[in-house]
């Protein structure tokens, strides 16, 4: 009898492992292959500002722009990322741009910068900020010149205001930006649900919708919005904190996106962070732009398919660490014609735990 029980127990464990592997198996049409990792050293200083807090990245001519989320000294960097033989050869930060302090907007707006886009037709830079909800400072989306001079800010729906009845969550607003594929506009995604929209992700299944909003360049006003459902938290925290949210998004066709879902569960050491890349098709989504309470209306969110779970490459990374991944953009096209993606991490300037400036290179396999 004991032998039979052991066999049954072993089969049960194998079944659980099988279910887990099936659950995390990529099913998206977009096929991603991990190529390489590069860690930029800590404590490198350019123009008296430390390189770190890398929260967003975009292509800039033959280089890259990377935004820093240091609210005490908001800035963005220019960098070269050199790829050879499907490997990241070098990352060189060549310049840093500070925002001009003589404009009323940058003087009065709390700049917790999370994402960045370069607009080549205007030779301008678009930036998103989460604001500071705890101190009643509104989030924002605004445009500056490449030298940091303020151009204008964008109208945002009233439910995103810090003191709105929708009750936005602190550190839970404009986290991701991506240009539309036709370059007629851009999309911005929130990290966490508004309190009246739904719950924050927990270890249980919840209704946790975040809003992804489209703006067109000409009117500079929001035109369309859909909701994206966040996963539950897979790892129960061993400490007192856990979170899962949208950290960036990337348009790959008209209404098809790659979305980065970044998770953190305290107490797991080097395994505290996780990241999944989902493929989302919003072509049949409902427009939620004028819907002020998603929890009451329960509009159907878009479906999503797993494109890549970084847990599958953790043991192959230099420190067996998936860091705080917050940015994504195209890298160079490979000799075989396939496009690449570059992901970057925000090391939080090591203010909480030892972290790294992590660059990850992926190939989009045809």
Automatic annotation (TrEMBL):
<protein>
    <submittedName>
        <fullName>Esterase-like activity of phytase family protein</fullName>
    </submittedName>
</protein>
<feature type="signal peptide">
    <location>
        <begin position="1"/>
        <end position="22"/>
    </location>
</feature>
<dbReference type="InterPro" id="IPR027372">
    <property type="entry name" value="Phytase-like_dom"/>
</dbReference>
<feature type="domain" description="Phytase-like">
    <location>
        <begin position="50"/>
        <end position="349"/>
    </location>
</feature>
<keyword id="KW-0732">Signal</keyword>
<dbReference type="Pfam" id="PF13449">
    <property type="entry name" value="Phytase-like"/>
</dbReference>
